[in-house]
């Protein structure tokens, strides 16, 4: 683990990371998302903006997991069709 300092929406945080470059990219993305929220609603405090970003990301994760499950189901269906074709 390496120590890395990141900046999120003008605030500096020191973190430990196995991949400092990735951690920096994540911090930059968080900062960008918070800036987008701030542009629309500048009276929210930092904690509330972070919470909104967390909710956004959780929604995206749920959608990605659902998409992944649909792809897995479709792949299983295709594999079953291929097995039927090959075993004929």
Draw up the topology in text.
Blueprint: E1 2-8, E2 11-17, H1 20-40, H2 46-86
Question: How is this structure best described in words?
Answer:
There is one protein chain. This protein has 88 residues and is α+β, with helices and mostly antiparallel strands. It contains two helices and two strands, in the order E-E-H-H. It has helices spanning 20-40, 46-86, and strands spanning 2-8, 11-17. A two-stranded antiparallel ribbon has the order 1-2. Strand 1 (2-8) and strand 2 (11-17) form a beta hairpin. Helix 1 (20-40) packs across helix 2 (46-86). The relative contact order is 0.09. The mean pLDDT is 95.
What's a quick, concise take on this entry?
This protein has 88 residues and is an alpha+beta fold. Helix content is 70%, strand content 16%. The protein contains 2 helices and 2 strands, in the order ββαα.
């Amino acid at each position: 683990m390496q120590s890395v300092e990141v900046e999120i929406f003008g605030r500096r945080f020191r973190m430990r990371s196995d991949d400092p470059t990735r951690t920096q990219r994540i911090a930059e993305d968080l900062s960008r998302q918070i800036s987008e929220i701030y542009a629309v609603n500048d009276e929210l405090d930092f904690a509330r903006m972070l919470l909104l970003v967390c909710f956004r990301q959780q929604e995206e994760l749920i959608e990605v997991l659902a998409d992944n499950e649909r792809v897995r189901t479709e792949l299983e269906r295709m594999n079953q069709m291929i097995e039927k074709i090959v075993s004929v």
